[in-house]
Amino acid sequence: MDQYDVVIIGSGPAGLAAAFGLLKHSTSSGAAPLRIAVFDKAKTSTGGLRNDCKMNFTYPVGFPEDIWNRDSADAYLDMVKEDLHPGILARKNLTVYRRRGEPLGVQLLEVDQAHLGTDGGLKLIQTLTAALEKQRVDIFLGEEMTGLDEQARQITTTTRTVGFEYLLIAPGRGGFKFLQDTLDTIGVNYVDHIVDIGIRIETRIEHYPIVHDYYDPKFLFPGRVRTFCTNSGDAHVVQERYLSRHGKTYYSVNGHAYSHRNAANGLVNFAMLKTIRFTEPLASGQEFAENLGLQAMLMGGGHPIMQRVGDFRMGKRSKHSSFSGDLYDFEPTLRGCTPGDISLSMPAKILRDIWKSMKALDTIIPGILHPSTIMYYPEIKLYANRPVFSDSNFKVKDRIYLAGDGAGTSRGITAAWASGLRACFGILKDLGISSPLPD
Hints:
single chain; about 450 residues; alpha+beta; FAD/NAD(P)-binding domain; 2 domains; eight-stranded mixed beta sheet
């Protein structure tokens, strides 16, 4: 049986950050090199680094405020920058957008951002994993953790049993159900009551020209609605496959863009999301969101739904003919979507708040509600796992730590990287190895 000092589940930013942190601070202390293994069920390294690779470096974007304060986040962000060497994008002309938004109660956050694009993200992943392998970290892709024996300190994978001294579980949002099953196995309580439900907007870039001044503008609207994950240049809407807790498939839409080296396709896409925080007696926000996803699949014949703004404003469904002709002057980049009526599938309260926010956005940036603009549904973000941590470094049981978006410690690449570092410092502390530990 293979035996490691630290086993990391998940090769996204949280898992990679932890591996780098463990290597850096253990060797600098003069301790013997740690034997580290990284496992991921995917055949390629995954996480936000792979999809668009957009990074935000300003608190509180990406940092849940109940477990991160500004000083701590800023200290970790400095370390993230040291690891990833981001090129921060310029911002300009934001005053005019703020001035238009203030009477509407709309806030525009000013965030330091970097963008590598999907192709640049893949190159970064290759660089990072090669550096880890050079330092003798074992990376096993396409090998899924299927069981955990807490007492024996062993995991079972699809091919073998592996022993560990310390275990870091760092799944992204796609590992939401896996993490819940694992927490149930080891008896860790968690809450599951927050989800983001919304749509993805796709339109011509001339209808959303703010992206020339600010790559991923962060607008906050009344009603807990926000813009999220803007993509421009060679921008595309994609779908991501999820399995419900009952094993049924549904798809959530998302967006990505390639780096500036690719020719622009003249389009921009971004999400409009409403955060839903449930209270008793609802047992699971995740299951509620899954049911919305499954309902959309039912209406879309197994695919997400798309609707032109022009049809939506007229109160009629979109048809295939809505995606041709001189008025609707661009084709959808997610061609597999089903033309339909979003209002038949999306809860009225959520849709009402999102539509109100879209009208406000059209006041700030006239043109976003052009009849040709496409609304894709559903876009679902499952952030709701929040385990009961036993310390500030995200320990949940003796020798077991969590990190990343799926564990509710982050929302996005940079915060996930920071959470991986924070967990690794907890492991180093348990090992008696000194490390920087921001408060």
